[in-house]
């Protein structure tokens, strides 16, 4: 969501931009909860008057131009593998769903969340780098 807010430390913004550029070249695989998380961030930001609805719509249009594939199997792993990872690494179930997907598919994980980065490293999942 750094793309949306454009805030954070310079290295975080640069990383977010690298991820976005990579997503323009390849398919991004996300857990089924991803759309709900994006919607929640946007709705909360608008409610707090941090962004306008017009800016949100422009952001969603930009996302529409990125090839994002939703993992249909996320739900079937939620009450087993994802819960196990959430417990083991003390993550939210939402964050654990990203780790579970990366582990299952053997993919690197693109995240700026420090707890998720630590958990991924401990689990043997590489952080995405361009």
What is the number of beta strands?
A: 2
Structural class estimated from helices and strands: mainly alpha
Rg calculated over all Cα atoms: 15 Å
Strand content: 5-15%
Mean of residue pLDDT values: 93
Morphology: globular
Distance separating the two termini: 18 Å
Q: Looking across the biggest beta sheet, what order are the strands in? A: 1-2
Q: Which sequence of SSEs, written as H and E, runs from N to C?
A: HHEHHEHHH
**Residue windows where pLDDT falls under 50 for at least 5 positions:** none
Number of helices: 7
Model description:
The protein is mostly helical and 130 residues long. It contains 7 helices and 2 strands. It has helices at residues 2-5, 10-25, 34-47, 53-64, 74-89, 93-105, 114-123, and strands at 28-31, 68-71. A two-stranded parallel ribbon has the order 1-2. Helix 5 (74-89) packs across helix 6 (93-105) and helix 6 runs parallel beside helix 7 (114-123). The longest helix is centred in the N-terminal third of the chain and has 16 residues, at 10-25. The radius of gyration is 15 Å and the shape is globular. The two termini are 18 Å apart.
């Amino acid at each position: 969501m750094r793309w949306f807010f454009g805030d954070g430390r310079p290295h975080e913004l640069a990383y977010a931009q690298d991820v976005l550029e990579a997503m323009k070249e390849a398919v991004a695989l996300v857990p089924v909860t991803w759309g709900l998380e994006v919607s929640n961030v946007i709705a909360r930001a608008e409610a707090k008057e941090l962004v306008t609805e017009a800016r949100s719509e422009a952001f969603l249009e930009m996302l529409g131009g990125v090839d994002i594939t939703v993992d249909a199997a996320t739900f079937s792993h939620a009450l087993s593998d994802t819960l196990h990872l959430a417990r083991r690494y003390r993550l939210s179930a939402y964050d654990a769903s990203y780790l579970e997907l990366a582990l299952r598919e053997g993919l690197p994980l693109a995240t700026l969340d420090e707890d998720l980065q630590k958990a991924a490293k401990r689990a043997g999942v590489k952080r995405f780098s361009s």
